[in-house]
TrEMBL record:
Protein's name according to its UniProt entry: PAS domain S-box-containing protein/diguanylate cyclase (GGDEF)-like protein
InterPro entries, sorted: Biofilm_reg_signaling, EAL_dom, EAL_sf, GGDEF_dom, Nucleotide_cyclase, PAS, PAS-like_dom_sf, PAS_4
Gene3D superfamilies: 3.30.70.270, EAL domain (3.20.20.450), PAS domain (3.30.450.20)
Residue stretches making up the GGDEF domain: 468-601
Domain spans labelled EAL: 610-865
Chain segments annotated as transmembrane: 12-29, 41-59, 79-99, 111-131, 143-162, 174-195, 207-225, 237-258, 270-288
Signal peptide: none
Keywords of this entry: Membrane, Transmembrane, Transmembrane helix
Keyword ATP-binding: no
Length: 891
C-alpha cells in the first residue's frame, strides 16, 4: 500500500534510511556507555538494524532503476532474505545475552525460543497465507520457500524478544523499547510478505513505515538513561516452568489439526511436527543434563555443608573442652547434666563428681544461693540472661572469684535447660586490688597517699554535715635534707618509714595518717573529743618526732612543723581546708623548729603580702633598687677604723626602706639571694679597693661580706669570689666572709670543702652571731674560721647586770684557738671599755657609727683617725655620736 503521491514516495525513500541510520548511531553510542555484555547487546542491535537499513536502500535502488517493476515483489523479498536473517540473528543473540549468564543458558533459552517459533510458524502461516500447498501452487515453490525462511527468521526474533521480556529479572526501559521496535519491524515485514504472496507484482510502504517506527523506538531506547529496576518475579511463569514443551507441542498440533481433519495435511505439516519433536527431544536431554548437574551440585553442597557442620561441631567441642571457662548445663529438673573439664582447674574438682547432682545440694553459701536463684529464674524465662560476680570455694580451701553468666535455654531442644558460664577472675581481681592499693597508697611507707587523703577528707565533710568541724594537720620534717645529704637517700627513706610508724602510733584510733610526698605528712582527725584536742594531738606529734631515731646505727635528730586547720575557720571547702593547713604549717616553720601553728584568716593576708613582696623583690633585682651601706669596724686598742661591714639596703619606690630582716629570708627562700649577694660582693670589693687607694688611713682596710646558706651551696661560689677579686683589684687578705653559726654547724662536707677553698685563696672567714645556742664548741675545731663575732645579746648583758663571765669565756676560747674577736652591737662606752679590758680586738656598733652611705664613709674614717690620734682610744665614743659624725663628714 502506497501513499499515492510522488512527493510522499520521495519522503519515504529518503527519510526512512536517514531515520534508521540515526537509530544505528544511537545504538552504537549506547554501546560505548556500557561495558561487558550490555556493550555487546547494543552493538549487535546496531549491526542488525544497519543490515536492515542496507536492505531498504537496495530495494529503493531497484525501484529507481526499474528493476523492481520488472521483477516484482519477489525481487524485494529475495533482497530482504539476507537482511532479515542478519537482523534476526543479531537481535536474538544480543537479547539472549541479557538473560543468560552461561553458554549453556544461551543454548537453553535459544531452544525455548525455537520451540515457540516452531509452534507459531504454522499458526502464522495459516493466518496470513492459507495452506502451504495452495500458496506454493499459486506463487511457485521458490517464492514460497523464501517467504517461509523470512517468516521463520522473523518469528524467531519475535520469540526471543518475548522470551527476553518475560525472563528479564530487571526492567530495562531501553531494551523494552528495542523489543517493541523489533515487533513492529517484523509486523511490517510480515504484512509486506503476505501482500507479495497474494500479488507478486505488488509493493507496499509497510516495511518503510515499520522501519521508521523501529528506528524511532531504537533511538528512544538508546537515549533512555533510566537505570534498571528490580522486576517482581513469583517464579510461576510459563517459561520458567516445565510446561513450555507441552504448550509448544499442543500449539503445533492445533495448527495442523484443521488440515488433517480435512485430509489436506502436507509435507510442511510433517516437517513442522518433526522439528517440534526434535526440539522437544533436545530440550529434554538438556533438562536431564541440567538436572543431573544440579543434583550433583546439590550433593556436593550438602556434603560440603555437612563437613562444615562437623568441623564447627568439633571446633566448639574443643573450645568447651579446652577452654578456661567452666561450662555447666543444668536440666529442667535442676540436676547438673554436664560440666566442662575446666572445673578441675578452676575448682580442683573432677567434673564427674558434679554431674548428676542437684543444684540444691550444692548450696553452701550466700554466693551459691545467688547462683541457685539465677538458675531457677532462667528455667522459667527462656532466652533470659543474667550476669553477676560471686565467690566459690576451691578444693584447697581458697576462694575463687567468678564472673558468672546464666542463660535460659529451655526452649532449645539440644539443651532443654540452663547454661552456666563461670569465668575465673581471681587473678584479675587481685591485680585490680593491687593497682588500687598502689594508686592510693604510698609505696615507701604504706600510708595513704595524697589522693586517698583528699578523698577521705571529702568523705568526712559529707558524712559529718553540721555535727562538728573537720580538722586536718599538715606536717613537714625539719632537718630531713641534712640526713639525706650526710647519710644518703637510702637512710632518708628509712627515716621516713620510721617517722610514719611513729606517727601511726601517736594518733588516735580513727585518725588517718597520710604521706603527701617528700618529707610531708598529713593527719585527718576523727571527731574531736575536746576543745583543745587538735592542739594536744599536734603537740604529741611534735614531741614524737623530736625523739631521736636510729638510722643505720646512727642517732638522727629531726623535728616537725605542724599546721592545724579547721572548717570552723576555713569553711567546708576541701581545697581551702587543705591549703589553710599547709599555710599554717609554713607559719609554724617560720616561727621555730618543732612547733605547731593554727590557721587564722590573717595568715592568708600575710601570704598575699608575701606574694606581693616577692613580686616587688624580683622587680628590685631587675631594676637594681638595692644599695650597699657600710658600718665601721673599730680597733679597740687604737680607735682607728681598720675595716667595714657591707650591709644591703632595699629602697622600695613606694614603701621606702624595707628592713633586711623582712626581705633577706624571702630572698633565700625564693633563690634571689644569689643575685643580691653577688651584687653586694662586687660593690663592696670595688668600693673598699677604691678607698684603700684614695682615702688616707684606709690603706689596710678590710671589708666583711655576709654569706647565706644558699650561697654557700652554690658550686660556683669560689669562682665568683676569685673573679670579683681579680676585677676589683682587692687583695684576698682584705676580704672577710661572714657565715652565721647555724649555717656553719649544719653544713655538709661539700660546704666545708668550699670554705677550705676560699680560705686557701687568702680570704678570712668569720663566724657571725657566735654563741647563740648551737653546739659551737664541738664543731669549732674542725671549721676553717679566723674570726669570732660575739653576738649582741652577750654585749647587752654587760649593761643589764655587768656579767662578764660568758664574754670572758668566749674571749678566752678564741685566744686559745688563735682566733680574732669582734664584738657586735656596742652602744655604750662602758660596754666598749669592758670588752677592751677583756682583750676584745675589734668593736662594732652605734657607739662608734651607724651604717653610712659610701659617700660618707671617707669622712668617718678621717674623723676616727683624727679622734684616735688626739684623744686616744678611750674617748672613741664621741665618734659614735651622730651629730659629731655629721660634723666630721662635713668638715
Amino acid at each position: 500500500m502506497t501513499l499515492g503521491t510522488p512527493l510522499a514516495d520521495e519522503v519515504i525513500t529518503v527519510g526512512c534510511p536517514v531515520v534508521v541510520l540515526i537509530g544505528v548511531v544511537a545504538a552504537l553510542w549506547r554501546a560505548r556507555q556500557h561495558t561487558g555484555r550490555q556493550r555487546w547487546v547494543w552493538a549487535l542491535l546496531a549491526v542488525g538494524v544497519l543490515a536492515w537499513c542496507l536492505n531498504s536502500v537496495m530495494i529503493d535502488w531497484q525501484g529507481w532503476t526499474g528493476e523492481l517493476v520488472r521483477r516484482g515483489g519477489a525481487s524485494a523479498l529475495s533482497i530482504s532474505l539476507t537482511a532479515v536473517c542478519t537482523l534476526a540473528g543479531t537481535v536474538a543473540f544480543g537479547l539472549l545475552l541479557t538473560i543468560a549468564n552461561t553458554p549453556g543458558g544461551v543454548v537453553r533459552d535459544a531452544l525455548d525460543s525455537a520451540l515457540i517459533t516452531a509452534a507459531a510458524c504454522g499458526l502464522t502461516w495459516y493466518a496470513l497465507f492459507g495452506a502451504p500447498e495452495d500458496v506454493a501452487a499459486a506463487t511457485g515453490g521458490r517464492l514460497t520457500s523464501m517467504v517461509g525462511v523470512v517468516i521463520v527468521a522473523e518469528l524467531f526474533a519475535v520469540a526471543v524478544t518475548v522470551h527476553t521480556a518475560l525472563r528479564m529479572r530487571r526492567r530495562h526501559p531501553g531494551l523494552g523499547m528495542v523489543c517493541l521496535g523489533v515487533v513492529s519491524l517484523v509486523a511490517g515485514d510480515a504484512g509486506s510478505a503476505a501482500l507479495v504472496i497474494h500479488d507478486p507484482s505488488a509493493s507496499s510502504d509497510a516495511i518503510a513505515w515499520s522501519s521508521v517506527l523501529a528506528s524511532v523506538l531504537l533511538l528512544a531506547g538508546a537515549a533512555s538513561g533510566r537505570a534498571a529496576t528490580t522486576k517482581d518475579d513469583d517464579g510461576r511463569s510459563l517459561l520458567s516452568s516445565g510446561a513450555l514443551p507441552c504448550f509448544a507441542a499442543l500449539l503445533a498440533l492445533a495448527t495442523s489439526l484443521p488440515a488433517a481433519l480435512a485430509g489436506r495435511a502436507g509435507p510442511v505439516d510433517a516437517w513442522l511436527h518433526l522439528m517440534v519433536l526434535v526440539l522437544l527431544l533436545v530440550r529434554a536431554l538438556l533438562l536431564a543434563r541440567d538436572g543431573d548437574l544440579l543434583m550433583r551440585g546439590l550433593e556436593q553442597r550438602v556434603a560440603a555443608r555437612t563437613r562444615d557442620l562437623a568441623s564447627t561441631e568439633r571446633r566448639f567441642a574443643s573450645l568447651v573442652i579446652h577452654g578456661s571457662d567452666v561450662m555447666t548445663v543444668v536440666g529442667a529438673d535442676g540436676v547438673i547434666t554436664y560440666v566442662s573439664p575446666a572445673a578441675l582447674r578452676v575448682f580442683g574438682i573432677d567434673p564427674c563428681h558434679l554431674v548428676g547432682k542437684s543444684m540444691d545440694a550444692l548450696v553452701t553459701s550466700e554466693g551459691d544461693r545467688t547462683l541457685l536463684d539465677a538458675v531457677v529464674s532462667a528455667l522459667g524465662a527462656p532466652g533470659s540472661r543474667r550476669r553477676f560476680r560471686m565467690t566459690a570455694p576451691h578444693a584447697t580451701g581458697r576462694q575463687v572469684v567468678l564472673d558468672v553468666c546464666v542463660t535460659g535455654l529451655t526452649d532449645d531442644p539440644a539443651i532443654a535447660g540452663v547454661v552456666i558460664n563461670s569465668h575465673d577472675v581471681s587473678e584479675a581481681v587481685r591485680l585490680e586490688e593491687e593497682l588500687s592499693h598502689q594508686a592510693f597508697s604510698d609505696a615507701l611507707t604504706g600510708l595513704p597517699n595524697r589522693a586517698l587523703f583528699r578523698d577521705r577528707v571529702e568523705h568526712a565533710l559529707r558524712s559529718r554535715g553540721t555535727r562538728g568541724p573537720v580538722e586536718v594537720c599538715y606536717l613537714d620534717l625539719d632537718g630531713f635534707k641534712e640526713v639525706n645529704d650526710t647519710l644518703g637517700h637510702g637512710a632518708g627513706d628509712e627515716l621516713l618509714v620510721a617517722v610514719a610508724e611513729r606517727l601511726r602510733a601517736t594518733v588516735r584510733e580513727g585518725d588517718t595518717v597520710a604521706r603527701l610526698g617528700g618529707d610531708e605528712f598529713a593527719v585527718l582527725l576523727d571527731e574531736a573529743t575536746g576543745e583543745r584536742e587538735p592542739e594536744r594531738l599536734a603537740q604529741r606529734l611534735c614531741d614524737a618526732v623530736r625523739r631521736p631515731f636510729i638510722v643505720r646505727g646512727v642517732e638522727v635528730n629531726v623535728a616537725t612543723s605542724v599546721g592545724l586547720a579547721s572548717t570552723d575557720t576555713t569553711g567546708r571547702d576541701v581545697q581551702r581546708l587543705l591549703r589553710s593547713a599547709d599555710l599554717a604549717m609554713y607559719q609554724a616553720k617560720s616561727q621555730r623548729q618543732g612547733g605547731y601553728a593554727t590557721y587564722h584568716p590573717r595568715m592568708h593576708e600575710q601570704l598575699l603580702e608575701r606574694v606581693r613582696l616577692e613580686t616587688d623583690l624580683r622587680r628590685a633585682v631587675e631594676q637594681h633598687q638595692f644599695r650597699v651601706v657600710y658600718q665601721p669596724l673599730v680597733d679597740m686598742g687604737t680607735g682607728g677604723v681598720n675595716g667595714v661591714e657591707a650591709l644591703v639596703r632595699w629602697h622600695h619606690p613606694e614603701r621606702g626602706v624595707i628592713s633586711p630582716v623582712t626581705f633577706i629570708p624571702l630572698a633565700e627562700s625564693t633563690g634571689l639571694i644569689g643575685a643580691i649577694g653577688e651584687y653586694v660582693l662586687r660593690e663592696a670589693c670595688r668600693q673598699v679597693a677604691a678607698w684603700r687607694s684614695e682615702v688616707p688611713g684606709a690603706e689596710n682596710m678590710r671589708v666583711s661580706v655576709n654569706l647565706s646558706a644558699p650561697q654557700l651551696d652554690d658550686p660556683d661560689l669560689v669562682g665568683l669570689v676569685t673573679r670579683t677579686l681579680e676585677e676589683t683589684g682587692l687583695p684576698a687578705t682584705s676580704l672577710v666572709l661572714e657565715v652565721t653559726e647555724g649555717v656553719l654547724v649544719d653544713q655538709h662536707e661539700a660546704a666545708l670543702t668550699t670554705l677550705n677553698a676560699l680560705r686557701g685563696l687568702g680570704i678570712r672567714l668569720a663566724i657571725d652571731d657566735f654563741g647563740t645556742g648551737y653546739s659551737s664548741l664541738s664543731y669549732l675545731h674542725r671549721l676553717p674560721v679566723d674570726i669570732l663575732k660575739i653576738d649582741k645579746s652577750f654585749v647587752d648583758r654587760l649593761s643589764d647586770n655587768g656579767d662578764l663571765s660568758l664574754v670572758d669565756a668566749i674571749l678566752s676560747m678564741a685566744t686559745t684557738l688563735g682566733l680574732a674577736t669582734v664584738a657586735e652591737g656596742i652602744e655604750h662606752e662602758h660596754q666598749r671599755s669592758a670588752l677592751a679590758a677583756q682583750g676584745c680586738d675589734i668593736g662594732q656598733g652605734y657607739h662608734f657609727s651607724p651604717p653610712v652611705e659610701a659617700a660618707d664613709m671617707p669622712g668617718v674614717i678621717t674623723a676616727a683617725l683624727h679622734t684616735a690620734s688626739s684623744r686616744g682610744a678611750g674617748h672613741l665614743e664621741h665618734v659614735g655620736d651622730v651629730e659629731h659624725v655629721e660634723q666630721e663628714v662635713a668638715r
